[in-house]
């Protein structure tokens, strides 16, 4: 059981001015912020991040959406981080997400669903290093 996960407050979250509310939900759920930045993804960076979805019909739209404005990647720490964070954000499609989850509360569509969460410990480690250097993590750790 790992203790870190990667969240991204996606461009729709930033655009709708929901950064504060969403971070409050995250920290109130017991997650500690280990590293955070605001950045605008390039096509190459977004494409690489979502490489696993390359063959999916929504891939081109997904890359377009993720590069449409700034986003906020956040490395989070908590016991059982990956699973607990997926529970906190809810299902990919906000219509299917449970009451009280971040996506249910704030998301507009299956694409513009406010927040990303890693789906395994292995991917969490990869995704955190996609955005944060070892030095950035060490400097912010503890
Ligand atoms: P997640 O792990 O819950 O974020 O979902 P996935 O890994 O399956 O998909 C990655 C992201 O692609 C989602 O968060 C959505 O932003 C987008 N996405 C997923 N499924 C669809 C879809 O059927 N249509 C569109 N337009 N976007 C999708
Ligand atoms: Mg996923």
Q: What is the makeup of the main sheet?
A: 4 strands, antiparallel
* Overall 3D shape: globular
Strand order in the sheet with the most strands: 2-3-1-4
Radius of gyration: 14 Å
CATH C-level label: Alpha Beta
**What portion of residues belong to β-strands?**
5-15%
CATH architecture: 2-Layer Sandwich
The structural domain count equals 1
CATH superfamily: Nucleoside diphosphate kinase-like domain
Order of helices and strands: EHHEHHEHHEHH
Counting DSSP H or I runs of 4 or more residues, the number of helices is 8
Summing up helix and strand content along with how strands pair, one would put the structural category as alpha+beta
- SS elements, strand count: 4
Report the helical percentage: 40-55%
How far from one another are the termini?
19 Å
The low-confidence parts are none
The pLDDT mean sits at 96
Ions, cofactors and other bound molecules: guanosine-5'-diphosphate, magnesium ion
In short:
The chain is 44% helix and 14% strand. It is α+β, with helices and mostly antiparallel strands and 142 residues long.
Q: Which keywords apply here?
A:
142 residues, 4-stranded antiparallel sheet, 14% strand, Alpha-Beta Plaits, alpha+beta, binds magnesium ion
